[in-house]
# Entry
Amino acid sequence: MSPCEHQCMKTSCMKTLNLKLLFPNMRVALKIAYDGTKFSGFQRQPQPQLRTVEGEIIKALQKLNLIESPEKANFKGASRTDRGVSAFGNVVAFNTENPKLAHPRILNHHLRDVWVLGIAQVPSNFHPRFWAKSKIYRYYLVDEGFDVDVMKECGRLFVGVHDFSAFARLEKSKNPVREITRLEITPKGDIVIIEIEGKSFLWEMVRRIVTALKLCGLGVIGAEEIRKMLSGKTEKKLPPAPPENLVLWEIKYDSVNFQIDEYSLKRIGREFFERFSYALVRASMFRDFLSSLCHCRRTFHNNALGLSPFRESV
# Structure
């Protein structure tokens, strides 16, 4: 190598070094929402054809040259929600040398069925799961004529520290003892919303608690059976409620302040409204289907009894 070539290489290396000093590696956290019904869960799967939330985000980050790979960027998620489960406040974090491109407005342009609601610069050792102080889940139930007071009575039994073995799909390495700090049940029109808060949850824990509360509201089981299940005095287990009605609503941190972009929120709001309008129209349509079906059944019943309004009088 000639002295000239050596000097050029040295100059090039110095420029690269100076750029890295000007734009050091930064750890970024994103607050995200997503429609879980569009994905096969949060976590990436071995089968590349399966669409996942994590995969969708990583693909966008790589396309924008924000990260080279999830491993090198130390990409982490706060909660690996199951297939069908949605979120309004999950959190992911990664390291990047191009933080200016990690903007909600830019990211949302490259994402489908996932929305970046906020961004925060976080310490280099930030882990979105281990730094979380609590998680809040919401479950939406169609009111089937529940006795909400009984549901609330049963719900109070879950608050506190308990062995939730009877309300989870247990994994060998997981301690079944968990603490629920808050459980609230709120009727809202035709919907009953169950909101549960705790630091950490077992697999399917929230959805199995929802099943128990639903059965309490229908009078199928009572508070005493819940007590027995929480005390380990019975091997009875309840199935999990469907995942599509569950939302990871919020994750709380002590010292992470997410910055919002008003323009992005307006665009997200318009997209949310479009999906809401579509679902509302479909729901109204099927409500009329049900109403007409009930009318048809009454007419059929009257005909069977000889009470048809079209029968000629004698």
